[in-house]
Inverse folding.
């Protein structure tokens, strides 16, 4: 029964023909084909597990003073604030996060401040990573902006790296 319906729908949508007889759309090119699931472009990993990956990557890159905060704002769910020892180190951390995020199919919305390297922001949609040089971090004190936010307790897997 279900297969007959799918076959009928496929025949109906095989070619959409306008009044003059020209083919407007070919079935294979319709992205929302009936009865067929769309392939997911980005990972659907829960935000806390995603934060554990980001934390691990930052530890691998030798980031200092890593803070993971659960901010649950209109813009993002979590904020990660870290210190880098130099502009080159900040860029390296950002590059590592971007490279690993692509491997894990995490959505990367944007990167800001990369050229200067004093404050590099990597927006992973539900997690925003702020990579500061130590002096810049002391100057802006973002932790005070979210002082009411809870620190995220990461699993032992992330902490062991």
């Amino acid at each position: 029964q279900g297969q007959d319906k799918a076959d009928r729908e496929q025949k109906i949508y095989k070619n959409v023909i306008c009044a003059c007889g020209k083919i407007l759309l070919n079935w294979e090119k319709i992205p929302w084909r009936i009865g067929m699931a769309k392939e997911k472009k980005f990972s659907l990993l829960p935000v806390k597990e995603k934060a554990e990956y980001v934390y691990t990557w930052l530890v691998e890159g030798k980031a200092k003073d890593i803070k993971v905060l659960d901010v649950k704002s209109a813009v993002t769910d979590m904020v990660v604030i870290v210190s880098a020892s130099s502009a080159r180190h900040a860029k390296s951390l950002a590059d590592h996060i971007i490279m690993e995020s692509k491997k894990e199919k995490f959505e990367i919305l944007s990167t800001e401040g990369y050229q200067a390297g004093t404050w590099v922001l990597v927006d992973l949609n539900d997690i925003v990573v702020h990579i500061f040089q130590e002096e810049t971090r002391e100057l802006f004190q973002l932790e005070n902006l979210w002082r009411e936010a809870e620190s995220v307790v990461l699993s032992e897997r992330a902490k062991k790296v």
